[in-house]
């Protein structure tokens, strides 16, 4: 028997792992955005966070919204087909459903954030992290001791 958290974690891993071979700059932008998503949801609400991702329309924003939607679908939270439908479901939800979607989105975005750190090796600034916990600087490929 799988618990819900295990299902969410597995799908989040699969979604982030799919970005492993992305172009480096796109991977950095996606990673930095994934780091900000839980805070955006908490600060602005799920409707504004998903609306922001849609409005930006850049590939990394759309990819993150698709990944969030996919994790929520696999977890059984929603059955929307894409990020646009997810956003529509959020803004049409009543209070109880909005709270449930928000709680599950925070969980999913937390997993996406952690896997971006671990799988893609991207920190909150979009910089690459070395496996030993050091941060590589992009200026001259020196390693910044933390």
Give the low-pLDDT segments.
132-146
What is the end-to-end distance?
A: 41 Å
Tell me what the CATH architecture is. Orthogonal Bundle
Helix content: 55-70%
Average pLDDT confidence is: 87
Can you offer a commentary on this structure?
With 146 residues, the chain is an all-alpha fold. The protein has one domain (4-127): AF1862-like domain (Peroxidase, domain 1). It has six helices and two strands. It has helices spanning 4-17, 24-44, 46-56, 59-74, 83-92, 95-120, and strands at 135-136, 143-144. The protein has a two-stranded antiparallel ribbon. Helix 3 packs across helix 4 (59-74). Mean pLDDT is 87; it is low at 132-146.
Please give the structural blueprint.
Layout: H1 4-17, H2 24-44, H3 46-56, H4 59-74, H5 83-92, H6 95-120, E1 135-136, E2 143-144
Antiparallel strand pairs: 1-2
Helix pairs in contact: 1-4, 1-6, 2-3, 2-4, 2-6, 3-4, 3-5, 4-6
Brief descriptors of the model:
Peroxidase, domain 1; 6 helices
State the gist of this model.
The protein contains six helices and two strands; from the N terminus they run ααααααββ. The chain has 146 residues and is mainly alpha-helical. Strands 1-2 form a two-stranded antiparallel ribbon.
